[in-house]
Every structure is written in C-alpha cells, then in structure tokens.
Amino acid sequence: MSEIGIGVVGGGYMGKAHSVAMAAVGAVFGTTLRPRLEMIAASSAESAERYRAAFGFARATGDWRELVADPRVEAVVIATPQELHLEIAEAAFARGLPVMCEKPMGASLDEAEAMVRAAEGHVSMVGYNYVRTPATQFARKLVADGEIGDVTWFRGEHTEDFLADPQAPASWRTSGDANGTIGDLSPHMINCALALLGPIASVNAEIATVHGIRPGGEVTNDDHAQFMCRFASGVMGHLYFSRVATGRKMGYAYEITGTKGAIRFDQEDQNALWLYRAEGPEAERGFRKILTGPAHPDYEPFCLGPGHGTGYQDQIIIEARDFLQAIETGAPVWPTFADGLEVMRIIDAARRSAETRAWVDMAL
Amino acid sequence: MSEIGIGVVGGGYMGKAHSVAMAAVGAVFGTTLRPRLEMIAASSAESAERYRAAFGFARATGDWRELVADPRVEAVVIATPQELHLEIAEAAFARGLPVMCEKPMGASLDEAEAMVRAAEGHVSMVGYNYVRTPATQFARKLVADGEIGDVTWFRGEHTEDFLADPQAPASWRTSGDANGTIGDLSPHMINCALALLGPIASVNAEIATVHGIRPGGEVTNDDHAQFMCRFASGVMGHLYFSRVATGRKMGYAYEITGTKGAIRFDQEDQNALWLYRAEGPEAERGFRKILTGPAHPDYEPFCLGPGHGTGYQDQIIIEARDFLQAIETGAPVWPTFADGLEVMRIIDAARRSAETRAWVDMAL
Amino acid sequence: MSEIGIGVVGGGYMGKAHSVAMAAVGAVFGTTLRPRLEMIAASSAESAERYRAAFGFARATGDWRELVADPRVEAVVIATPQELHLEIAEAAFARGLPVMCEKPMGASLDEAEAMVRAAEGHVSMVGYNYVRTPATQFARKLVADGEIGDVTWFRGEHTEDFLADPQAPASWRTSGDANGTIGDLSPHMINCALALLGPIASVNAEIATVHGIRPGGEVTNDDHAQFMCRFASGVMGHLYFSRVATGRKMGYAYEITGTKGAIRFDQEDQNALWLYRAEGPEAERGFRKILTGPAHPDYEPFCLGPGHGTGYQDQIIIEARDFLQAIETGAPVWPTFADGLEVMRIIDAARRSAETRAWVDMAL
Amino acid sequence: MSEIGIGVVGGGYMGKAHSVAMAAVGAVFGTTLRPRLEMIAASSAESAERYRAAFGFARATGDWRELVADPRVEAVVIATPQELHLEIAEAAFARGLPVMCEKPMGASLDEAEAMVRAAEGHVSMVGYNYVRTPATQFARKLVADGEIGDVTWFRGEHTEDFLADPQAPASWRTSGDANGTIGDLSPHMINCALALLGPIASVNAEIATVHGIRPGGEVTNDDHAQFMCRFASGVMGHLYFSRVATGRKMGYAYEITGTKGAIRFDQEDQNALWLYRAEGPEAERGFRKILTGPAHPDYEPFCLGPGHGTGYQDQIIIEARDFLQAIETGAPVWPTFADGLEVMRIIDAARRSAETRAWVDMAL
After folding, report:
1. A with B: how many residue pairs have Cβ under 8 Å apart?
2. Alpha-carbon distance D324 to D194, whole Å?
C-alpha cells in the first residue's frame, strides 16, 4: 500500500464531493493506493483555507498554479468553472500529473480538443459519475451481453427544474453556452448513451430558451433541447435535456428497448433497475424492479445487504477508485479526455443542427 | 325518453366494444336517447349472425349496404378495416344518418378529406376513446384552466409490443401504410396531443421498419416512428410510436410540463393522474398520484367510490354517450370528422418529413 | 339461447351496478342465458320508477314483495340495506328463485345462518365482486398451483377514508354494527383471504372507534380494526380494516409470501399484479409488475389488448356471468350463502376476541 | 477544531461501516471534532491487521481489552456480536470513554439493563442508523409538528428474505434468541416506531419459526413475528418482522395515518417520502412522492442537488456526526443506552405475550 498526494482545485459542489470521496475511498474499497488530502485551491486564499479546514486537507492556496506546481501534489482533480479546465489541465499534464476533470471538458469544443492533445501520454479522466451507479453499470453489462437482444430504441433525458420558475433571477447560469442546458446538463446523459449503446452517428436537434427575460436581465443560453439521433449501430434514439422541467429533481433517466427485453432506469430511484424479459408464460411477463445489492457491480463495498442502497456521494467514491486504479496501472480509464471529447463533439453537432434545422452527420 | 336504432358495421375488436357500449350506455348514464341494437353487419352473413347472437342485435346482414339502407337503422357505427370507412360513411350520410367512425379516418389523407366533405351538415364523430378516461379529461381541464401555468414541453407516446418478437410472422398488419405504426397506432396519441395542447404547427419525423423480414414474408410498413414537433403555441414536443416496444402493453402515455406544474399519465395505470404543483414549501413538493373518483369527469356514473376504477370498455361507453348527445342536439361532438382530418394531416406531414429528412410546416 | 327475467331490489350504489351488469353481460360474455331487465324495486314507487327509467327495466315497484312474487321475475338480486337481506331472500327462495345477495349477508350472524338455511337446495351467491378481477383470479390460481411454494405469511387490508375527517357528520353509517368498518368493509377482504389461502382457524382482534363524537351525534360503531389470524394451514396472517385511513380510496390490498415467491396486489391499481419468483440469477430478481391482459382469467371478453384495463363495473359483469352460469347448471357458485356465512362467522369471532382481548378459535 | 482517537471493536459488516463513517464524517459535515482512526480490534490479531490496513487505522489488536485500555483511544465503537456488548461497554465506561454500540444492546434484557447502569454519567449511543435518513427525519418532524393531525394508526415492518429459502443451511443465524428475527431485525423498526409515535404501552405478539429444520440442523430461533400494539397515546399499531419475506430485500417500511394526512415510507426507496394531505380540492388530492433534497434534514452536506440521493453508508456518517456532537457537548444523544433499553423491554414483553397468547402491558 502506498500514498498519493491529492490536489483538488475548487471547493464548491464538486470540489467537496471529490474531497469526501478521496477521504473515504481507501476505507470503502481497500485500495492499494491511498489518497492523502494534500492541498486544496480556491479563488481566494480565504475560501481555500475554509475548504481546507472543512474537508481535512493539509494545505490550502488561493492560486491553483501553486497547487499544480507543488511537489507533494501527485494527482490533480479539477472542479472549477469550465473556463479554467483547459489551463489547469495543461499545467498539470506539463508536470506529468494524472488529472481527473469535471464535465464538461473545457468551455468549448476547441478547448476540449486542446485538452485531449495535452492529455496524450498521461492519465486523464472525466467526471461522469452517474454511469457508475451499480444499476447503470449493471444495465450496461446486460446490454453488452445481449441480454435484451438487439437494441431497437433508446430514450434518454436529463431533466431538472432549478430554473423552472420564470421568476428565478438571471445569474451566471443564464448566460454563456457552457452554462446552458446542453452545455451543462446534457453531457452526463450523452455520455451515458454512448456507454450503453456506442457511438452516435447523426443528430437532429432543437434548442430553445423558454424564458428569455428573467428578473435582473436577459437570458442568453438555452433552457431545454431535444435531439433525435441515430447510433452508429442504426438504432433510433431521442434525448431531452431541460433545466425548466417542473417537478423533476434528478431526471437522469433512460429506456432501452431490445428484441428480447427492455430496461428502464431513473436516477430519482437510483437503487432500482427495471428489466423486462420477453420469455416465460405471457401471463407472467412484466417489468421487474430489481433492487441493487451485492450481486451488482461496485455495490458490496458499500453494504453487504441488498436493497440497502447507495447514494450520490458513493458514485464519486467509485469514480475515485477508478482514478486511483488508472494511476496505479498507468492505463487510461473510461471515460478519458478522448472519450469526453466525443460528448463535446455531439453537443457541437447538435448546435449546428439546431441552427440549420437539419440532420448533422457526425462523420462529416 | 326515446329510442334510436343502432347499426354497427364490423363485429371484431372495436365492433364488439361499440356493441357492448350501446347495450350499457343507457343504464350507466341514464341517457334520454336509448340505443336499440338494431342490426349488425359483417363480411359474411354467417359471421354477422354470430355477432348478432353474441351481442344481442335484432338482425344481422352480410352486406353493410343493407344495414345502411335499413329504415330502422337510425345511426351507424363503423368498425371495419380502414379501407371501407369512406364508402360506408358516404352511404350513411347520404341517408342523413349520424356516423361514428373508428380511427383512423379512411386509408389515406385523400379519403379522410372526402369523408369530411361527406360529413358536412351531419353528425360525425371519430372514435378516439382514450381521451375520454376520467384522468385524461381531468388533465385536459387542468391544462385549459392554466393550473400548470404556461406549457413548455410535451412528450407523448403510444407504444405496444405486439410485433416486438422478430419471429412474429408477416400478416395483414405488416403491409399497408394504414396498418403500420403511424397509420394504426399514432392517431390516438396525436389526437390526445391536439386535445391537450392545441394545433401542431410543424413536425420533423423519423419512420423506420425495424424487422424488414419476418417469417412468411417482407414487411412493407413501419414498426416505429418519432416526431419532434412544435405546437402552434410555440411549445416544443416529442411523439414516439412503436409496435415493437418490448414490455409495453398499452404505452399511451404523456408528460406535460408547465411553468407552475406538471402532469404525467400512463394508460397502463389509467386510473391515476400524476400532478406536480410548484407551490407550498419546497420540502413538501412532489408529484402526487391522484386516483380518479367521483370528483373527476364522467367517473361517478360508473361508481360512487373513488379509486374503484374504470376500464377500457368504460371509455367506449362514455364515447357512446357523447355520440348520443350529438345526435340529440344535432351539434357536432369533438372529435368530428373535421377534427379527425387534422390527425391525418399531421401523419401525412410526418411521412413527408421522414422522406425529406426535414421539418415540414403544417401551414404549407 | 334463452332469456331470464331479472328483478333487482334496491337502486342505489350496488343496485345500479347490478343493473348495468345485467344489461351488459350478454354482449360481453355471449352468455347462453340472457337477462331481461324485468323489474326493479325501491323503497318508494317514485324512486323505483326513477331507477326503472334510468337503468332500463320494464317495470318498477315500491314494494319488494311484489317483485319477488311476480311471475316474470325469475331471479332476484338483493342490493338493499343489510337489514332486509334475510326477509327478501327467504321470500325469493320460497318461490324457488335463484338469489344473488350483496355482502354482508344479513345484519347479524343469526340472520346469515337463517339465510343459509333458506338457501338450501337453491342457487345462492354473495356479491364479492373484488375477488373477480383478472388480477386476483390469477393470484388465486398462482397460489393454488403452488407457483409461490408454501405460503408462509398473508397480509390483507381494506382501507378507505370516507370517514377520516373528524368533522364528517354522524349518519346511518356511524351507527349499527352492520354499518361499521368490520360489518361493512371487512367482509370483502376476509372473503379474499379465504379465497386465496383457505379457512381461518383462529383470530385475535382489536376493534376501535377513533372518533366517538361527530357533528350531529355519537358514533356507535367501529372506525377501524385489526385481526391477527392463523389459517387452518398454519399460515400466520394479519388483516386491517379502516374507514378513517386518510389518503386511501380503495385500499383493498394484500401480500402473500411463499417459499418460492411472493405476490402483491392493490385494488387502487387493479390491473397490475406484482409477482416475485425466487429463481434465476440473484442479480435479476425483483417483483415484476404484470399488467393484466387476455392471458389472465376473464379479461379477454372486455378487450383483446393487454394492459388496456378493466374497471369496477367489469367485476360486477363477471359476477353476473357467474350467477347466470349457476342458474343454468343449477350448481352453486362460489361464494354461495354457505361460503358467505363463513365470513360472518369470522367477523363474529373477531368481535368476541376484541371483547375478551384473547384469541378465539373458530372451531369452538 | 480538535481530534479524537477512535477505537472500533469489530471489523465485519458494521465495523467497516463505522470505520468508513469515521473517515468521511469530518469532510462531509465539517465537524469541529475530527475522528482519528486510532485502533481496530478483531477476534484475532491477523484479522485485525487486515481490517486496519483496509480501513486505514493506525494500529490493530486481536484483544479488545487492549483497545479499550489504550490511552490514545478516546471513544469506542462496538460492532461485535451481541454477546460481547456488555463487557466491552463496561470496560470502556470504566475508563470514562464515550461508547457507541451497535443494536441490539446486549444479548438479553438483563444485559441491556446492566449496560444502562454502566452508561450512567457517560456518553452512550445505540446504532439505530435507519431513523437518520433525511426522509425518516423529515417524517418524524411532520408527525411531531402535527402536520398530519392526530395519528390514528401505525404499521411498521422490517422484512428481508435472507433465510427465505428453506434450503439455506442452519448457521449461527438460526440459533440463539439474539440472532432470531425479533432479536436481530425487530429492534430497528421498534426504535423507529418509538421515534415517530412515542412510547408503546402494550403488545400482543405471535412469534414463529417457519422452517424448523434446515440442512445442517435444527433451527432454534424465530423466522418471523407480528405484534399488535397500543402506543401510550392510544394509537393502534401493528409491527411485522421477517427474515423469510421472499422478495423483500430491505423492507424497513412504515405507514402513519393521521386525521389530516398520512405518510408512507419504504427503505427500499429511501430517498422518497410519500405524503398525503387532506386539503385542497378533492379532485387534486393524492399521495405525493417527495424526493429528499437540501430542504430535508441532513441531506445538503451530501449533495446540493435534490433527488440526487443518499445511501446506506450516509446514514452511518450522520450517526457518527451525532456521536461526535454528543462527545463535544457531553450531552446524551438519542437514542442513548436508556432509549435502547426501551426497545429491549418491548421485545421482552412480546416474547412473554407470544408465550401466554395474551396482551402484555408494558407498565407491569
């Protein structure tokens, strides 16, 4: 067993999640590589110190460059606004450090491409935590093993309602493409669709701002969007993303139809996977609600009892385990920056499709 | 109270449903006009006689023309294959009889248009029974009354799995546009979308045959289809139709998002409507599962107890009541043939969209 | 095919349900014996005439004795308050007529016993409609066929909330044992338990009035009750009945645990049966939600499409079919008056148990 | 901020859970007192060393006495079999250390009483983690605040199926009262009932062994049990416990009925609380599914997004926070050993009730 000094840049929502994960992952998974919470960076020395104390890091800094340059920092987690992703990643890779970066990669397709170039020869990973629930890992395995036959249809959504109220004021969230719904919410479910069904070949998208004016100013990015898509396998699909989906809190949900079965999942009940098998007497067929348990991927380290459930933070702990394994083996771990770039390319194609009101072929 | 002689053409699935409805509607609703099961027609005298005996009609005939011409037949229900709809309707209207016709209207857009012309000045009605459940009637009222605010998104589907098995043999169902998924399944949910949100302004569709070859021959119509659409109100929407949706038995389902609330419904649990209201303390918000009862439209005649539930046949009985009312008042009842034509126009636009891979504007 | 003249006594809630059922059953099931709605009786000539017109009977009377004595009345349905059940049944049996009587049988155990004596040699049936849903019929078959192995536990409830509001006024419902919760609500679920698991051997009950005073007067019967019970098979069970179960509209629900599987059902979603089978890979086990369809008992006559659903009224139609079959064959049909008496005996034992605060053995 | 040296006795299921919680609690809650994983004890030096390495403790020992005596151990978590609870607790209290002990307290009522005596003047806590989910904490608050009015009925269960298979072999689980269903499973839900509704005044129980013989030997403890109970408030209740509940994985579930509303919860979907309010138009009433989020107790430290969910391990982290707070303030934290004793007393009363087949009054 050996130690590795972790530097986390950003102490907000995801910065905290990664810090807790790094504190817990060793005990949960008994990893041979053990994270040492070495340094945390934030936008000011004061906030960084506050995060340090709260999360249990050894040191703090108001300058991320100091963190990246520190000799005791041996791996970097980037949990800042997207605008900083590229610069920090380049600096970390320049030192040869492994980097886990929160989604989306960079603030634009160009930046994402630059990040992939910078990552070459290094360990990189994008923070798509939701595909790591035991339920979705199991769904992925069922599909890959052909358990539901040939897939014929996929429907995915990521819907929340944090801006559903038209009176919610304009803010940083309501300007900048990267903060809009397809910039901010869509990457998780696009990544999930790729994980479950493989590459997307073409898209036909609509992107819209529902509430153009909010108290405090104009809204300059999108509220919701839908994509019709075709996977490279020929499967027809549909994706929907919304931050104005009244009533939806964590509507990361998908349906997969196959010739021999079907799967349904909704993150709002993340410990259940619904499976239908077109077999046995007609009178006994139905979607079964499978509760995750030790029989499913990465569940048992959290609890020996089935149905006892894992939660949001546990997904980040699984992600931390994967990052540590990548570091130990030197091998890239899915999704790498290159994988994350594919998500950005699909978003870019969707933007072009919405503008031209036409199908966009990913191969072109 | 007075009587009216009913003639039903067709004794299969829907012919039986309408016959039962005509037998029961008086007792259920205490209608002032009472149906008398006068005559049933089928493709042969033998099968007609069998239906007559089973359903309780006074007379039977193997020739629908005889039925339409019979002086004791005062209203006609058409429940034949689509190919016959136009001819029968024209003959009935020529005699000045009220006509209820099963969906879809005619076998093509041209036929549907001819049916509308023939219906002018007469009582006509299309058999869209599903919009008549107490739950969907209530949803329609909630939306119309602005209870969920301005609608911002609609998603509808009609998915079943009766041809999901690739080994299901080729049959009449697998040839002919009118028998394909958008010809046969899509009209109900398109009608529902129109009922709930008003006119559709444009569509962008994909239509596909998943299993091109089946035991016994080639499949020449579609297995599933998706439409992106815009309502005239500007609301973005999505529709999906499938007869290969493994696991789905009666997936007539919709979600309506508004600025003040949201609604969810699935015909597989037709006695529940899910309503979310963006009001009250955040900690107490959630979709509530409303069980239909006497407080909802057209429930109480079936049962005084809430949550006791209505079923498929009851929808047809409600429809029969509406048809009788239209006859009594002489006024058309939604959806008339003209309303039904709108569904056919949308299907036609979708076909053109799928061919051209482009948006089609309904106004053009 | 032959006709039978039906006389219905009572035109309220259940009187209407049976009248509609008699109007529809022939067309639905194609019965060889066809009901003719001959006469309806109510507490006054005026209300009887109103029911006659509404439901479509040939004649009406304000005196049930006239109905029972009428030569054209060939079968009697009793849907009056319990206090009249015995007298009407005795008169009908005296004329040799078949009798269907609404539950509970009589207003007391003594009356129920007298009804059984009167029914000897005649066709009798008690109106336990809920056991006739396709879902519960299927559950009964699964249990009987050993599909869930040896049963080890049963939990049933019948809970509604029509008197949950403490401000709901005192009325006929709040006085008289027969109108209390165990008098009025419990018989259905007790009958269901007997149907599913066989005889009950002993009970230990608590019976309580939650709101002793209501606007308008004192409450002199019970609001809710629970029974621990042992079936003759040794299976442990629990039953709960309540008319003050806030939020429950039709909580006729049960869970059956077996060594090889388990079943769950809730009448509030009467078209679904939940089945768990302890077989196959652990990772794929879960309760499956089976939607009723043509593969289940008595569904297909109502609709050819699975998942399209039956409702409350349809149960009464199934019951009417069973009554007609009993009349045709002369054979008793479950549950006969003798079967219904067993329910009354259990209620009586529960009352004694609640008074003595001790187990009561049914055999004593 | 200061540190406290934690000693954990036992490295199995719960020993791991508490170790992970102690590793994570500081970062999650920003506690002022920070646990230092000082020492872990197990039944042998080898297994202790394995646990030490896996969970990240500084030291290990095969003798719990050494741990309790160690000057750097400042608080003790007991996660051993029940037989050792008393002895370890006494030794720790003798040194003046705060003790958190897993349920049930001791192997018998006598031992539990001795533990309470030993705990006097010290910080003690029993590990009832399930009452600490955000959903159940919120339910408790709703009830306490009178949000559902006066409670009239409570039903709770803790059902699992780990011994549902009759062919599961005899083991330590199948002998010894403390390992039976009421010894092992019932304490959690009894504690929950007390937390939600206050003291239980009397019980009437049935306790049974379903499978008396298993491969490998006789079963000498109970498989399932039911209690009718009355709370001190007069509320009627029912509790059911089973380890043979085929299909149930974590059936820790309850229903609370009140005069103004009702609550339902099932740990198998621990991030949802179902609330019914008897207010507003009848047509809009229904149980609402509330997803836990930052608006609910102890959720936000785990995630800022509502509906993103917490899991089993998070409950133990909340528990660790409560234990640390108790240590800091010196004040006892619910449930203390004295609270835990009440659970043991109810179990004892239930055993006596089952033997005598009679109600047992807790006050006697």
Report:
1. 112
2. 23
